[in-house]
Write a structure and sequence with these properties.
CATH topology: Lysozyme
Distance between the termini: 18 Å
Helix content: 40-55%
Number of domains: 1
Radius of gyration: 14 Å
Strand order of the largest sheet: 1-2
Largest sheet: 2 strands, antiparallel
Shape: globular
Strand content: 5-15%
Length: 138
């Protein structure tokens, strides 16, 4: 399902699938199961929301906080919203500029997507270990 939703997007399919796997614990997280949110996207604008605890790294320390996340009607809407966020927000300009390079795109994306300082490495490990680059080569 994730691959089909990623194929409709405008960014590297393999990185998109790797990010969804990382953020949703391979589709087993409560956020993905109950909120159809596979990227940990926080609630915004008029989106329906769902609250869950999350771990954020603040000043080098991991803190568990309650956060409101966007709740989607289906996986496709979630994947489309991820693309919209990357395309429209200025902080992702570097990611957009490196959209064809999986390593650079992942590193640029990680700077603003997550507070985990190891986010890019975790994302790229899933990408490489599961040979998701093959999705980007076709």
């Amino acid at each position: 399902m994730a691959t089909a939703a990623a194929t409709a997007g405008k960014y590297l399919i393999g990185i998109t699938v790797a990010q969804a796997a990382l953020e949703s614990a391979w589709g087993t997280s409560q956020l993905s199961l109950q909120g159809k949110n596979y990227f940990g996207i926080k609630a915004h604008r008029d989106t329906e929301s769902i609250a869950f605890p999350t771990i954020e790294v603040v000043n080098g320390k991991s803190l568990t906080l309650q956060a409101h996340f966007a709740k989607y009607p289906d996986i496709g809407t979630c994947f489309a919203d991820r693309d919209r966020i990357i395309t429209q927000l200025a902080c992702y300009q570097d990611a957009r500029a490196n959209a064809s390079d999986p390593e650079l795109f992942a590193r640029c994306l990680a700077r603003h997507w997550a507070t985990d300082p190891r986010y890019a490495e975790k994302l790229l490990k899933i990408y490489r270990n599961n040979k998701l680059q093959s999705l980007d080569e076709s």
